[in-house]
Design a protein that fits this description.
heteropentamer, A mainly alpha, B alpha/beta, C mainly alpha, D alpha/beta, E alpha/beta, C: mainly alpha, ABC transporter involved in vitamin B12 uptake, BtuC, 11 helices, about 75% helix, about 5% strand, globular, D: alpha/beta, Rossmann fold, 2 domains, seven-stranded mixed beta sheet, 15 strands, about 20% strand
Amino acid sequence: MIKENTKKQDLLWYVLIVVLLLVPFIPQVAANSFTQHVFILILLYASMSQAWNIIGGYCGQVSFGHSVFFGIGAYGAGMAVVKFGITPWPGIIIGSLLAMVVAVLISYPCFKLKGHYFAIATFAIVEIFNRLFMVWYWVNGALGLDYPMVKTGWTNFVWYRTKIPYYYGALILFTTIFSIVRFIERNRFGYYLRAVREDQETAEATGINSTFIKLSAMALSAFLASFCGAFFVQYNFRVDPPMVMSLQVSMVFVLVTILGGAGTLFGPLLGALILIPLQEYTRVLWGGLGRGTDLMLFGFLIVLIMVRQPKGIMGLINEYLNYRKTRKIISAQPEINS
Amino acid sequence: MSETILEVDNINCAYDNVPVIFGVSFEVKEKELVAIVGANGAGKSTIMKTIAGLVHPKKGAIKYKGKDISHLPANMILRRGISYIPEGRRLFAKLTVVENLELGAYIENDRGEIEKRKKEILKLFPILEERRKQIAETLSGGEQQMLSIARGLMSKPELLMLDELSLGLMPSLVESVMETIVRIKQQGTTILMVEQKVQEALEIANRGYVIQTGKIVQAGSSQELLNSDEVKKAYLGM
Amino acid sequence: MTMFFQVAIDGLLTGMVYALVASGLSLIWGVMDVLNFAHGEFLMLGMYVSYWLGFLINFDPLISWIASGVFCFLLGILTYKLIIHHCLLGPPLSALLATFGLSMILKNFALNRFSPNYRLLTGTLLDGKRTLIGNIVLPMPQLITSIFALVVVFIIYYVIKRTRLGWAIQATAMDKEAAELMGINTERIFLLVFGLGGLCVGVAGGLLPSYLAVHPEVGGLFGLIAFVCVAMGGFGSIPGALLAALLIGLVEALGGFYIAPVFKYVVVFGLYLLVVMLKPKGLFGW
Amino acid sequence: MNFIKKISIIILTTLLVFTLVNGAAFAQEKIIKIGTLFPLTGSCALAGSRCKAAVETAVEVINNSHPECDVPLAAQEGLLGGYKIVLVHADHQGKPDIAKAEAERLFDQEGVYTIVGCYNSACTNPASMVAERQEKIFMCGCSSSAALTERGLQYFFRMAPTDKTESIEFCDVIEWMNGTKGANLKTIGIIYENTEFGKHAADEGKLAAAEAGFEVVVDVPFSPGATNMNSEVQTLKAKNPDVVFGACLGGDYTLWVRTMKQMDWLPKMCLNYCTGYQDPVITEQLGDDANYFMGGTGYAPEFAELMPAVAAVEKIYQEKIGVPFDSDSIQEAVATFILAQAIEKAGTLNYDTVRDTLYANEWNSPLSMGGKVAFVSGGQNAKAMSMITQLQGGEYKRVFPTELSTDEVIFPMIPWSKR
Amino acid sequence: MPLLEVCEISKKFGSLVANSKISFKVEEGNIVGLIGPNGAGKTTLFNCITGIYKPSEGKVFFDGSDITNLPPYKVARLGAVRTFQIVHSLKEMSVFDNVLIGAYLRERNTEKAREMANQCIDICYLTKIKNTRAGDLAIGHKKRLELARALATSPKLLMLDECMAGLTSTEVNESVSLIKSLKKKGITFLIVEHIMEAIMPIADKVVVLNGGLKIAEDHPEVVVHQESVIEAYLGQKYSKKFQLAAKGRNI
């Protein structure tokens, strides 16, 4: 039965990729740069949340600190372009490696903490990083880094007139991260992650080095998050600490994942599919009124979803699937005892 | 004999849409000790939780003294006079023995009455008297089990429901727990108990029900059950 | 040396306000394991209540703290009934996200209703009054707020530790199902706890407008610091939250003065990390 | 089926929103669409909403016949013989990434002719880049970062004086005080919110001070939205500079002043960059405590005799938002007027022509101090000026430059104990 | 050489002494019972052996190497695997996935690990509920699941902490025969148990703890006669019962 599910999921996966590849050819999208923008954001946030999902969903370590890694990636690309005047690629690579190192360094002591203590510690780390970057002269502190006009194309990963390359860039990012997570999910590492989430003591007693598992999950997650950050800055041509390295930014990743369903492969995508258009279109509709109506509505919808379906959209779908399954079970009650 | 005080009528229960209990009916008469026995995962604890109001039946009714209580919340059921001592002690670990007892009588507002009961109950469990001010989690396993029974008695229940009292207790303690139950019964409290130790339970019970995969498969006086071949084979390991 | 004491005293006075905000949060957190993200926004609304009472009918914050306390009590109860109650069925994070949504609603509600203007009460009883101890200045508004903070925190602590209701609250926190079996209406306890949490922050909000401007964003940093206080003190421990709040106030002021003002929150968050590295469950945590 | 119901509700809502957004097209008339992009929510919402109202006011005056207003285009209705301006408002929440996305949307989806915005320099930067790439005009009112007009953009125009000009003016005041009043001011302290705005202001302040030969003894950045400013003020007090340059917004400004009062400390002189100090409600909020602070001001109601034309426009503005203009919001109105004048003069909507017209002329702008606007390369308004004012008895008294001043500086600031 | 050797282990929590100088050996292929009253320090001893606690004094040797201060996962990798008294199943995962996690310890290949997990599930009579969420199981099944997961790691030594509590006598008999068959495959057992019916017939040796001290170590039939054991642990009624049962077997 598990195999059957896997096959179904695989099929779904391929269909999804093909559909996404074709999105720019939908006339509505192709002609409308804002719709393109929304699609890019969906993919970006889905990727970013998927990166968070590795540690927050599968491994159960709720980190509000991911904007640090996001930010380091963003600054990596930004520094390369602005300060060194070269292509962002070396910056992205260095930034990602650096994010990994930072992730290991800060999470090693933090993993001693459990539950909310860990969450608050990651809060604190974001705030510390934010404030340090705000005064760090070398990275322009609070002023931020503004991109100069550079030659467009894949070398610089910058386009001014079109968004389609960004869309495909985001799609590559998304596909890569999703494939990685999908691979992990079905392998030893993925099972170990979940074991650590469910019960660390049992995991240890079963021969799992839980610290190592958590650290490697964090490092991987930070590495991927950093790429997303770099993409974000290449897309916006500007980076400053509140933009990429703040609690608010972290919250979005958590929000998207939980809303979709933490610890599920399709949760982040579902969450982003619902949340991002909501955020963008409510702002378009009511943001101009200047009365916070859009944000009120946005907040209201978050509350509504959480109240109606605390397990996220995937919870809803699983509930539905289980409902069908149990109907079968009722008709064929198993002899539980052997 | 005497009045029926608890009547469980054809109930069905499920956790998250997974059904566990299928049309179970039984009754408990006043001043009786009734044991429900059965294998693991048969649904014994679920039945107890359903009566105590922690789980609500999908179908059927539970009548206590003729009134339907099947959809009351747990705290209201206690107020009707049913006290449930759950599996695994469930003490308030950071509170002292006395504070745990006080909470047992939470529904009683009369200060004097509470003091009186406390005295009575501490007499029944002398070991707790010595440890009045001790934090519950520092008690030994047996003492904790005693405290959980004592706490359950503080509300002066007419019907006491005991769930797997002997679980994880050493043999000599199992003995004394069973003795305690007999003593409580002698004081006039009706008792409904669930027990894995089938032999021990049926030895002290008046009547028993055997439950298997969510259905009652056998019922009768405890002697009948102890002598039944099916029970011997399935539960007593003979 | 005077400078040192002055800075330290200022820090402690600020810490007291943090304590008042944090104790409500700690209570909610300890009993229900719910992170109330909208706590700072409760404070903001409490401040608005007090401000409007002062502005429209000339109530002094010394009186209107009662009103804002009651208001936030009701707000807490409503929040529980409408939101938290449903979220408790799901994973613990869902309550956090729901309150995050709520904080967005409340913040923008204030923006919508009261405009983004910052507002400050002038001419209150305590406005600008101060006492001197030696060369050290003690500003009255902060001093009175601190006294209130101490009293409220003490009352709550007493209720929790010494009364049957308090034991019931503790019992609910430790084992909800078992508490239910004791005849404790845990729903009502949760409701009460959320209300009390609101009450604490409402009292703080009622007193603050005498020296702090009210605007829709005012709650943000208070909320964040309250989180840190609670975690540093150990979840559910009221004295822990008090001590942590005082420590944070002190460290913030001294760090801000002796290192650099821009680093004062860095020092605060750093202190939290340090404390939990040494005591992973906070100062008074279980 | 509960499940299907839930899912369909979600899908329907999304679809509804989607169609609403895409379907909201205007019928083609004789209109010019102009986008406004301000922080309408978030920590700068106050300033943003005022700026938005200022633009609305300007458009109201331009579109309709307002003979009572003595400003260009007021008497006639609309532009170019009947074209009306339609505003499309957007909110960037103070976030640069949203500013960029919204600017793109305004240009591509809403089809606006130009954007007026964005208040925060950090947001103006990416948003104006969007315009530049599309070779469309971007009108900036009050973003004060000097760097904005040093980027060499072709289609970017800014009305307000920059931090740089203000900083130089501050130093001029000090020199003037030293020269004529024997004030003997030597040391400077800077307190600013640690954001793009504050940092820019402080950097320019330091540069100007160094050039004029003053010593900056203390430099205090603080986190905006602070719960208290005790250590900030203590740090200032400990170094005790003669003059303090301040760059604090709204709530932080009141908190700062209150904290200084509480600590019983004042510098001899206090000069503020726009924002907090020149907020029209500041005297309401702080009462007497607001007095004797000084700052650069582009407009205040007390300037009535200098800028007589403002009053009538201000009336319309005040109906919208309840407070008089301040130096930030009025610049946004100026931006709108200048743009309209340029279009009218160019007689076409062709971007290049309008841009060239903007550069080629000196514009009559009754809402600007000095009454003139003219742009130099990079888009800076070369005629932008502000005055140094001092709050005395709750009014902004003009104290410098001397040729326009009406009142004497009260120096040093009256200590708290003597008020 | 014994498979497991516990040398003078002491464990103190502040002033509380949970274990005091406990020594015993477990020979390869044996079943050793560890009994004693609640709070005698059995679980603490388990925790010291498996590395969850660091013992205050003493050494533990497993298979010839010193494992005293090794972290739990290393002990498990060496082949000493335990179950928990309070069942720690991985609630949100299915029974099969639980066991699979055990199987992954020795087998990285997913297909082979699945095969192994399936075998262990069959051995422990869990086949019919293999897709159930572990959190939904009844207590007895959870205990059996713990056993299956431990088994899947191909251990040399299995340490079972009250894995039969909550089972009816018939189920206990099943478990006993399961343990016997595993013993034949060469697995060594160290078992903490209160159910004497289970432990007495199969144990090669019984170690009795009381108040953190070892009070007896001998063949079970000898132990049930010892006065100290009867007094501290068994109670008169039970000891008589076992003595009778033992006699019955001897005849």
